[in-house]
Write a structure and sequence with these properties.
The complex is a heterodimer of chains A (about 300) and B (about 50).
Chain A (H helix, E strand, L loop, with lengths): L1 H18 L8 H5 L1 H55 L18 E6 L8 E6 L3 H6 L2 E2 L10 E6 L20 E5 L3 E7 L3 H4 L2 H7 L4 E3 L5 E3 L13 E4 L25 E9 L6 E14 L16
Parallel strand pairs in A: 2-3, 4-10
Antiparallel strand pairs in A: 1-2, 1-5, 3-4, 5-6, 6-11, 7-8, 9-11, 10-11
Chain B lengths: L1 H7 L4 H27 L12
Classes of the chains: A alpha+beta (about 300), B mainly alpha (about 50).
C-alpha cells in the first residue's frame, strides 16, 4: 500500500510541474498531513516485517543449537542415572538382561556407533514420545529389547535435540552398532545395501569389516538375509506411514515366523531429508555377536568400539 | 514502532540503552523458552518415528 501512495504522490508532483503552480493540487490535504501518517504506516509495517524475519532466524538458532544444549543436559542426567543404577544394583545371577518395568524416558542401554567416532555414545531411553526423544534415542514400545529375536527398533532426532542420528545416512554395510546393557554387550552390523545384496561375495572381499573375528573369538558374518527377510536391506528411505519397517520381519507385519527362528535385528529410524518430515531414513542391522560382561573384568570393552 | 518505544523510555541515553537491552533479552527469552517449545511440535521438521 505504501507503494501505491508513493506512486500517487509522485504522479501528483509531475502533474503539478507540467501545469504550473497556479493549478490547485487534486488532493491538498494529503500533501500537508498525509506524508507523515503514510510514512509512519510504511515504517511500522517495515519494522514488523524485519522483526518477523529476526524471529524466524531465532527459531532456526533455537532448533539447531538451543535444543542441543537442553537435550545434552537431559542425556547426561539419563546416563548418570543409568551408570548409578548399574553400579549400585547387583548384576543378575545368570547375567541375563531383564528389561521389564521400565518407565517412559528411563535409560536402559547405551548405543555406540564407532563409524561416527569412538566417542559417539548415547543412552537409549524407553519410548518414542517427544519427551523421551528429547533425552536421547528412544526404544519403540512393544518392540523387542537388545539381543532378543525380532526387531529392536530405536528412533532418534536428525537435527537438534542432540541429533544422535544426524549422520545416519553415512553408515555403510557392516558398520558396527554396539549396544551395552547391564549384563551384556551386543554387536550389531549394518546389513548389505540393496544394490550390494546381489554381488555380496564380491563386496565382502573389499570390506574386511564384513568378516571380522570378534573380541570373543567368534566370526562375525554379515550376509544378505533370506526367506521372508529378502526385502530387508541395510538402508532405506520410506514414507512416514511405513510403520512396518519396525515389524519383527520388516515390511511384513503379518509374516508367520516362529519367535525362535526370527533374526535378531536392530532398526534405527530418523527423519529425512534433514529439516523435513517428508520421509524417514531407516537403517537395519543384524546381531552378529553378543557376550555377557565378566564381573571380574568390569572395564573390559569390545574391540569393535575402536573400529572408527 | 521502535522509535515510539524509544521516545517513551525514561531517563538519559545510557539508561535507555540499558532498558532497551533488557527488553530485547526478555523478548528473546520469551521466544526461546515459551513460544518456540510450544510451536516446535506443531511444525513438520522433526518427526522421526515411523507410524
Amino acid at each position: 500500500m505504501g507503494t501505491v501512495e508513493d506512486a500517487r504522490r509522485g504522479a501528483g508532483r509531475i502533474y503539478g510541474a507540467l501545469t504550473g503552480p497556479e493549478v490547485p493540487s487534486p488532493r491538498p490535504r494529503s500533501r500537508s498531513a498525509g506524508p507523515d501518517r503514510v510514512r509512519t504506516i510504511v515504517r511500522t509495517a517495515g519494522e514488523i516485517l524485519i522483526t518477523l524475519g529476526v524471529v524466524v532466524l531465532l527459531f532456526v538458532v533455537y532448533e539447531v543449537y538451543v535444543t542441543d544444549v537442553i537435550s545434552a543436559g537431559k542425556q547426561q542426567d539419563a546416563t548418570e542415572a543409568l551408570d548409578d543404577q548399574w553400579q549400585t544394583t547387583e548384576p543378575d545371577q545368570e547375567r541375563v538382561d531383564h528389561f521389564d518395568g521400565l518407565q517412559p524416558g528411563e535409560g536402559f542401554a547405551k548405543m555406540y556407533i564407532p563409524a561416527f567416532g569412538t566417542d559417539f555414545h548415547f543412552t537409549i531411553v524407553e519410548g518414542t514420545s517427544d519427551k523421551a526423544l528429547e533425552i536421547g534415542p528412544g526404544h519403540y514400545l512393544d518392540t523387542p529389547y537388545p539381543g532378543q529375536p525380532g526387531n529392536f527398533a530405536v528412533a532418534g532426532h536428525r537435527v537438534g535435540k542432540g541429533a544422535p542420528f544426524n549422520d545416519l545416512d553415512l553408515l555403510t554395510s557392516c558398520d558396527a552398532i554396539i549396544v551395552e546393557s547391564r549384563n551384556a554387550w551386543y554387536i550389531y552390523r549394518v546389513l548389505p545395501m540393496k544394490d550390494e545384496a546381489g554381488r555380496w561375495e564380491q563386496v565382502k572381499q573389499d570390506k574386511p569389516r564384513c568378516n571380522v573375528t570378534g573380541s570373543q573369538g567368534r566370526a562375525q558374518q554379515v550376509e544378505p538375509l533370506k526367506g521372508e527377510y529378502t526385502d530387508t536391506h541395510g538402508m532405506e528411505i520410506v514414507r512416514p506411514s511405513e510403520g512396518a519397517v519396525i515389524a519383527d520381519v520388516p515390511h511384513k507385519p503379518n509374516a508367520k515366523v516362529n519367535k525362535a527362528d526370527q533374526v535378531a535385528l536392530l532398526t534405527l529410524t530418523t527423519c529425512h531429508p534433514k529439516f523435513s518430515d517428508r520421509q524417514r531414513l531407516i537403517v537395519h542391522a543384524t546381531l552378529v555377536d553378543q557376550w555377557a560382561k565378566n564381573p571380574d573384568q568390569p572395564d573390559s570393552r569390545p574391540a569393535e568400539l575402536k573400529e572408527g | 514502532m521502535y522509535a515510539w518505544i524509544w521516545r517513551h523510555l525514561p531517563g538519559p541515553v545510557a539508561v535507555r540503552v540499558g532498558i532497551a537491552a533488557v527488553l530485547v533479552a526478555g523478548a528473546v527469552a520469551l521466544l526461546m523458552f515459551v513460544v518456540f517449545p510450544w510451536l516446535e511440535p506443531v511444525l513438520p521438521f522433526n518427526n522421526v518415528t515411523a507410524e
